[in-house]
C-alpha cells in the first residue's frame, strides 16, 4: 500500500449475511482510493485472513 491509500474492512459472521451496507458506508468517505477487504467469519477472535493482512 502506498502512502495516503486507505484500507476498509468489512466482516459478517455467515454467508447468509450481506456486507453491502458496510461497503456502502466505507465508500461514502471522500478518499481517492480505498481497498476493501472482506471476511466471512466469526467475530469471536482475530484469526481472520483479511483482518490479518
UniProtKB/TrEMBL annotation:
Residues of the active site: 13 (o-(5'-phospho-dna)-serine intermediate)
Domain Resolvase/invertase-type recombinase catalytic: 5-53
GO molecular function: DNA binding; DNA strand exchange activity
Keyword set, alphabetical order: DNA integration, DNA recombination, DNA-binding
UniProt entry tagged with the keyword Lyase: no
Domain of life: Bacteria
One GO process term, biological-process aspect: DNA integration
Protein name according to UniProt: Recombinase family protein
